[in-house]
């Protein structure tokens, strides 16, 4: 759906499950009108100011990358099937590009990538895995996440831990 924003020397790669309906329609990451991803990047200190979804490729200038676990599916998580996700492709890309850290932008994405049950995944920094970058699981910035306001501190914690704030 959306092209990866990856490259050498990235400090952090944000990874979601798949392009949401509005993101797929506009061809831009986290483009839903009520998605808090872009404002949260600025608020937490990942970027010096607010970027618009159409400017997603500019994240590389800040040593930040973007990808999704599904490059063929689109829609809300409930609309996706297990066959839409290519976890091996994701990990191969992370091994190749070797970012310092990965932040999953939902508990679902973290559970899928780490091959664990969602209820086994806590928000925040994950236990270290030898040979892998630091891993964070963040609460989804989607408007569908009713707990967003009280959980946004995890984004700030990730920014501090990865040297952005």
TrEMBL record:
Residues 10-152 form the Uracil-DNA glycosylase-like domain. It comes from the Bacteria. Keywords: DNA damage, DNA repair, Hydrolase. One of its GO terms (biological process) is base-excision repair, AP site formation. It holds the Pfam family UDG. The keyword Metal-binding does not apply. One of its GO terms (molecular function) is pyrimidine-specific mismatch base pair DNA N-glycosylase activity. PANTHER family: G/T AND G/U MISMATCH-SPECIFIC DNA GLYCOSYLASE, G_T MISMATCH-SPECIFIC THYMINE DNA GLYCOSYLASE. This is Mismatch-specific DNA-glycosylase.
